[in-house]
Amino acid sequence: MTAGGPGSDQPVDPFETLVVAALDSLPDVFRDRLGSVAVVIEDEATPEELQRVGAAGLLGLYTGVPRTAYGADQAAIPSKITIYREPHLRTFRNPDALARGVTATVFHEVAHHFGISDARLEEMARENGRGRF
Q1: What does pTM read for this prediction?
Q2: Would you list the domain boundaries of the chain?
Q3: What is the assigned CATH class of domain 14-64+75-127?
């Protein structure tokens, strides 16, 4: 990510700021183990990405080998988390909802990096009284 900042001639991207804040808010035990995971922002998922996961739309996507898989440290494919800007902007209409939505998506994709499935995330959300992780 390449948001502008002090001494930068690039403008600050508010959406990128939300993604960075979400990553910064991860518990240290997870944030410190992200290692070389690339976190990127794209406007929309490609038709190929949607087809690969069988979804009509995506807020985020984890690709790679989860940390829980045997030999994950030697995986030939680097891990990548993609956060999709436009679906977030369409779904979360006010700044507070957008910040919460981006954080939830980042946490969800980071959970996949650590081997937690969608089914387990849904189970955890139900256990915690939330409709969605």
Answers
A1: 0.81
A2: 14-64+75-127
A3: alpha beta
* Residue ranges, the chain, pLDDT below 70: 1-9, 67-76, 130-133
Q: What CA–CA distances, in Å, run from 34 to 27, 29, 57, 85?
A: 11, 9, 25, 21
> What are the b/e assignments for 29-62, b being 16+ CB within 10 Å?
eeeeebeebebebeeebeeebeeeeeeeebbbbb
DSSP 21: H
Helix (H) or strand (E) holding 90: helix 85-91
Q: Rounded to the nearest 10 degrees, how much is the dihedral formed by the CA atoms of 36, 65, 51, 86? A: -30
| Separation in Å, CA 101 to CA 21, 77, 80 | 12, 28, 19
Q: Hey, what are 33's tokens?
A: 């183990």
